[in-house]
Structures are given as structure tokens and as C-alpha cells.
Amino acid sequence: MNNLMVIDGIEVRRDVHGRYCLNDLHRAAGGEQKYRPKYWLDNKQTRELIEQLFTEGGIPSSEQNQSVSFFQGGRDTQNLGIAPVNTVRGGAEQGTYVCKELVFAYAMWISPSFHLKVIRTFDRITSAPQTSSGMAADKMQAGVILLGFMRKELNLSNSSVLGACQKLQEAVGLPNLAPQYAI
Predict the structure, then answer these.
(1) Which string of DSSP letters, residue by residue, matches 65-128?
(2) Would you write out the chain's pLDDT as a tens digit for each of its 183 residues?
(3) Which residue, 92, 109, 128, sits at the end of a domain?
(4) How many structural domains comprise the chain?
(5) Which residues pair with 80 in a beta bridge?
(6) Which of 62, 64, 73, 136 has the highest CB neighbour number within 10 Å of its CB?
(7) In this protein, which residues make up the domain named KilA-N (predicted)?
């Protein structure tokens, strides 16, 4: 399965347990203040869903008898499996990470169109067999994300960006559509 999930050009990070970053989903949905993950997590229905997931054992662990502590509803409980919600404060991986079921619930809370977009993205990355063209598309998408970051953070010139785009196209086997004189 392809682990790279991108919605509207925003990469949705995953933690070591496969949970998805709600903060990235929030940005992909447009980043409106009223849809911040904190507000969704404070919702009674969300808390009940998290409690139900926790009661059922969290996310199945790949290692047997791995005990994870999960703080929910004012009490600290031991669980066999991985907690459905984990918040990382500070550092490069900061954010609130949730299991797949909670990703769908969060997307549904935001809007029907975003919910469908998330479902279709999950379907695309989980059901399609990985082909060479699919891998090329993944490489291209990763390259575009990296290039966007580098352009913003390193303040690359337009000619540098064009050169990088041409190399990226060549690397994934796409034809070079930019004129040579543009570099």
C-alpha cells in the first residue's frame, strides 16, 4: 500500500503507528478556524466515538501484548493496542494523530464534499495496485511537495524552480514541456 496521502496538495503525515495528522487534514480542508481539530475533539459525539474505539481495543498492534497508556475522559487507562488519538506537542512531528475511523469522522464533521474527498483518497491509495505509473505519480507528487517547500524556505529563483521541475519530469519519465531558453 502507498503510504503517501495528499489531499489538495497537502501531505497528510502519519506517525509510527499509522495514525493520520488531523492538523494536516485541517489545512487540506481550507484551515478555517471553526474547523480546528480541537473543536472537533471537544465535541460530545467525537468523545463517545473515541471512547468506543478505545473500548474495542484501539488500533490493533502489530506487536502482541504491547501496552500503551491512553488518557481519555479524565482517566489514564492501559490498553492492548495503539491509542486511537495521540497528540504530539512540540518538535517536527507536532500535531494530533488519529486512526482511520476518526479521519473519516473528522472529514464528515467538516463538510460532505471534504468527506467524499477523503474517502476517495483513501480508496485510491488502498485499493489500487501499485504500478510503475502509480509510483511515478507518487514520486512526482513528493517532488512537487518538496519543491514547493524549498521554493518557499530557500527563496529559489524562477529559473532554479524551472530547472528543478525539468529534472523532476525527467526523473519520473514525463516529457519536458518547458522551452529550453527559459533556463
Answers:
(1) T-EEEEEETTEEEEEESB-SEEEE-SSTT-EEEE-HHHHHHHHHHH-HHHHHHHHHHHHHHHHS
(2) 445 788 988 899 999 888 999 999 999 999 999 999 999 999 999 999 999 998 887 665 443 333 343 444 444 444 446 889 999 998 888 999 999 999 999 999 999 999 999 999 988 887 766 555 566 677 777 777 888 878 888 888 888 888 887 887 777 777 777 766 655
(3) 128
(4) 2
(5) 67
(6) 136
(7) 1-125
The answer to whether residue 135 is domain-embedded is yes
CB 55 within 8 A of CB 48: no
How many CA atoms are closer than 13 Å to the CA of 53, on its beta-carbon side? 23
- Domain assignment present for 73: yes
Domain of residue 145, residue span: 129-176
Burial of 26 (0-12, 13-18, 19+ CB in 10 A): buried
Q: Which three cell numbers stand for residue 104?
A: 473519516
Distance CA 23, CA 19 (A): 12
> Helix, strand, or coil here: 60?
coil
